[in-house]
Write a structure and sequence with these properties.
Blueprint: E1 9-12, H1 18-29, E2 33-38, H2 41-51, E3 56-59, H3 65-78, E4 84-87, H4 102-123, E5 132-136, H5 149-168, E6 175-181, H6 187-195, H7 199-206, H8 215-226, E7 237-240
Parallel strand pairs: 1-2, 1-4, 2-3, 4-5, 5-6, 6-7
Helix pairs in contact: 1-8, 3-4, 4-5
Bound molecules: NADP nicotinamide-adenine-dinucleotide phosphate (NAP).
Length: 247
């Protein structure tokens, strides 16, 4: 197997579950030094055992700037550089307009938007030409789903960051792109489908490919956008959603 990320230093926020965990495993299998984060220490320890390959974890919340400082201080001590950032940590909560509470708004924007901004900004002093940033978007940023206005707005912001930061980072030679999943079979999604009768059938009927994505399918897109194979791709939003947004 070709190892596209041999000795590359890769930081993945929210790498203890779902898409982030699978993506961390894929980078590690291709030779990268992988750092993952997550708020729950116990889950972080389990995830590191699952990933193996010398992956390291730094417990922390992306919406807490001091936690991000601790993360990058450790990466700097260990390697002195970052080659790839996958700003993946994100939460989805729902409330219809008319019932949006301030703490719902603050929590989702703090993690998804503020967390992404400072995850990337604080990595920049350690990055150089050839570096890649992949942001976690969502098909929700381009569609209208009932009760998901706050989450969807955070993902529209992510898409916008990739455009502006592509220009801001032009002279640094750092590429920024977004990977936007549709509906993905993560452990959290599995639980949601179990508790919401009819939701899986609705998704299968709505997605042109007739099924949900596997986390491996999102990971492949993240590795593509992080590798030289996408050397002339910038400011792009790659939908990995079985045709959901495009069709
Ligand atoms: N699954 C989907 O269908 C889908 C679709 C479109 C987009 N996405 C996007 O893809 C990304 C990953 O989603 P997922 O479904 O894989 O999520 P998930 O299975 O719920 O896992 C989320 C991960 O992020 C961590 N996390 C959450 N909040 C955090 C915070 N404040 N600071 C640091 N880490 C945090 C979690 O660990 P802790 O809880 O321990 O912090 C966990 O490791 C998200 O940005 C999501 O919006 C997912």
């Amino acid at each position: 197997m070709t190892k596209r990320f041999e000795n590359k230093v890769v930081v993945i926020t929210g790498g203890t579950d779902g898409i982030g965990l699978t993506t961390a495993g894929s980078f590690a299998a291709e030779g990268a030094h992988v750092y993952i984060t997550g708020r729950r220490q116990e889950r972080l320890d389990e995830a590191l055992r699952e990933i193996g390959n010398g992956a390291l974890g730094v417990q922390g919340d992306v919406s807490n700037l001091a936690d991000l400082d601790r993360l990058y201080a450790q990466v700097k001590r260990d390697h002195g550089r970052v080659d790839v950032v996958f700003a993946n940590a994100g939460v989805s909560e729902s409330a219809p307009v008319g019932s949006i509470e301030e703490d719902h708004f603050d929590r989702v924007f703090d993690i998804n938007v503020k967390g992404t901004v400072f995850t990337v900004q604080k990595a920049l002093p350690l990055m150089s030409a050839g570096g890649a940033v992949v942001l976690s978007g969502s098909g929700a940023g381009s569609k209208g789903f009932a009760s998901l206005s706050i989450y969807s707005a955070t993902k529209a912001a992510i898409r916008s960051f990739a455009r502006t930061w592509t220009v801001d980072l032009k002279s640094e030679g750092i590429r920024v792109n977004v990977v936007s999943p549709g509906m993905v079979m993560t452990p959290a999604m599995h639980t949601y489908l179990k508790n919401n009768t009819g939701a899986e059938e609705w998704m299968k009927q709505t997605i042109p490919f007739g099924r949900l994505a596997q986390t491996e399918e999102i990971a492949k897109a993240v590795l593509f956008l992080s590798s030289d194979e996408s050397s002339f791709v910038g400011g792009e939003e790659l939908f990995v959603d079985g045709g959901f947004v495009a069709v």
